[in-house]
Fold this sequence. Notes:
The chain is mainly α. It is built from 17 helices and no strands.
Amino acid sequence: MQDSGFFGLSDYHVLLAAVGGAIFVAYLLPRLVFRRAASSAALLMILGLAAYAVVPGMPSALDPTTAPRLWEVTSEIVVIIVLFATGLRIDNLGNYRLWQPTLRLLLVAMPLTIAAVAAVGWGLAGMTVAGAVLLGAVLAPTDPVLAGDVQVGPPLEGGEHPVRFTLTAEAGLNDGLAFPFVYLGLLIAARGADPADWLVEWLVRDVLYRILVGIVVGAGVGWLLGRSLFSERGRSALEKSGPGVIALAAVLLCYGLVELAEGYGFIGAFVAGLVCRRVEERHHFHQRLHAFSEAIEHALTAILLVLLGSTLPALWPALDWRHTVIGFGLLLVIRPLAGWLALIGTDLPSGDRWIVGFFGVRGIGSIYYVGYATGHMEFVNESQLWALVAYTIFASAVLHGATSFLVDRFTSR
């Protein structure tokens, strides 16, 4: 390694110091100012932007339009870890009535959201059909990473209000269920908009087969993991081992096997955590598994958000007022209205339906999807896609972070 001289400034070390300082301030400042923990996602992005603007010697920001693979891989690891942890968190599966709001959000609200965002992207922003469909798919799923403040708590804590349960289960599944629509955007980009050229293949392979494989393989890995951990010999080994390697190994094993079988690994990771928990629901080791997974998630997410904030100035020129309408239209009109309509007829009262509809947090999953799509095919609207996704995540972090107290109010009744 080349010597940079006495007190020479290495760009890499300046980057490490700046990112570390930004994360430290983002997590400490809310506790000093508000005397309590607060959502730090927006603050991390703001500090990332500020670090690149004012700290001398910072390297160039990592432009996602030229290096999508890095963003795809980093966000992928974060999402699969948090999906497994989300499955572990759910204490009580309940019955169909408990899951009915989640199923409505997945089967009604998400397709409505994708269609509405795609229509606005095509009609208002002048995007291609493929780009508009991809935009809808990328922005439709709620995020299990940044929405922790409005979801159920760690394993064995209880207090699973229907609003929190619905938001947790939805976030656990819709990251995977948005993937068929990402593939739909790729198919349209490759073959054109005529459904006769891709509809049957898309339904059979990308919808039915890949979802089924994610559920079956994820459940199988979760069951085998649970039986191994909580067998008579496994219990003895658990008391002497740390949870870290076990949790990480389970996530990677499950995700890798599902993807090798051409299924949706996001679905598999969530189902594996859900099934693993069912093998021995009350064992305290679930708390240790979850705590380790959550620590990795927070660390990687913080770094990713600081770096994403650094890209905002470079992505800004690709936006205009139409993209602002799309982003805020999604957060303030499309998702809340689609969620409220989808939940009509469930046990949730009207106020709870509005809360569930409103808290459609956008985040790390959207980064993965746009990174995956633009890394596999070149889109005409690629810079617009990245810019709109980045700014929508930022707007969601500000909006939902500032209003997360509403969930506490509604779930404490």
